[in-house]
Amino acid sequence: MHFSLLQEIGKPQTWLESRVYLLLRHHGIELPEQINLTQLCETYGIEIHFIHGRSRAHAHPTLPNRYIIAVDERLDPATQRVKIAHELGHLLLHEGVQPQCSEWMIDWQESQANHFAEHLLLPLYMMGSVLADCSRYQAPALLATRFQVPLALARTRFDRILSRLYAKGFPVYD
Questions:
Q1: Cα–Cα distance between 41 and 48 in angstroms, integer?
Q2: CB 10 within 8 A of CB 157
Q3: pLDDT of the chain, 174 residues: tens digit per residue
Q4: Quick check: 56 and 49 in contact, CB under 8 A?
Q5: The model's pTM
Q6: Which of 27, 44, 72, 124 is the S-S candidate for 10 at Cβ 3.0 to 4.6 Å?
Q7: End-to-end alpha carbon distance in the chain
Q8: Which residues partner with 57 through β-bridges?
Q9: How far apart are CA 155 and CA 11, in angstroms?
């Protein structure tokens, strides 16, 4: 894939994508190895705790205006990163308690937190240099390794790249 073409499709196309990219750049994050979720959470007064149970986010029990992201310790590190990013998305984007929301509102918040995690963990603007000399068949595995995410998520993001290329008229499915 051509580096300049990958840079072009790495430009944000949604409000959420542009907000996440602004957040990353505000913190000086320009390379996959710089996406340090522990450090990013600390910046926002969020502690990460590893528990034996369902991952979730909640207010800190003793410190006002502080929060905790509890992550299931049984998950592999790549999946833990996705859970942390998802819960960080909830804390930065949403207010209120989910059980008091309607079902469609919960679905919308979950979808938005999932997209937040995708944009945060696999920002398209970082992929140009990573994928420049890579075949499309090797790309998902390379992305999973370089960005420390599960292969399924890397495939999803790479499919988004292919879709954006296709939308611009480039033959990607031949």
A1: 8
A2: no
A3: 566 677 777 788 899 999 999 999 999 999 999 999 999 999 999 999 999 999 999 989 999 989 999 999 999 999 999 999 999 999 999 765 555 667 777 787 889 999 999 999 999 999 888 887 888 899 999 999 999 999 999 999 999 888 888 888 876 654
A4: no
A5: 0.89
A6: 124
A7: 14
A8: 69
A9: 19
